[in-house]
Amino acid sequence: MSEFMSCDTGLAEISYRGLMQHSGVGSQATIAAALQHFEQMRFLQVIRNRAVSPLRRVNQYYFTLDDPEFQAIAANTFQQQRAEIELQKQLRSEEREARCQNKVPV
Predict the structure, then answer these.
(1) How many CB atoms lie within 10 A of CB 19?
(2) pLDDT in tens, 93-104
(3) Distance separating alpha carbons of residues 67 and 104, to the nearest angstrom
(4) Is 61 exposed, middle or buried (0-12, 13-18, 19+ CB in 10 A)?
């Protein structure tokens, strides 16, 4: 989507069909679900343009990486993943230690 971003405004203007074509996704429902998910994460702001003429207007998209809520979500997710990784390391270490203690010397 960044390919379609205006240098002046930071807005990307692209249709669902364009998003499907450039992403390789074949379903409008999948595109809609992804956009909705990004909006909920506060990663993307969608400016919905309603058609007032026979030609249909497309939505505009703005990446909001500097949004405090997005940054909080990202930081929280990072901390959770780090904690899970450390727990997995600890469990593997304990399993390895238990196996070594149960070995019978030959």
Answers:
(1) 22
(2) 999 998 888 776
(3) 58
(4) buried
Q: pLDDT at position 7, please?
A: 62
Radius of gyration (Cα) for the chain, nearest Å?
Answer: 23
What CATH number labels 1-65? Answer: 1.10.10
Q: Which contiguous run of DSSP H or E holds residue 11?
A: strand 11-13
The number of CA neighbours under 13 Å toward the Cβ of 17 is: 3
53 — phi, psi (to 5°)? -135, 175
Phi first, then psi: give them for residue 91, nearest 5 degrees: -65, -40
CA dihedral sign of residues 42, 43, 44, 45: positive
How far separated are the first and last CA of the chain, in Å rounded?
63
Closest residue by Cα to residue 73 from 41, 38, 46:
41
Cβ(62)–Cβ(44) below 8 Å? yes
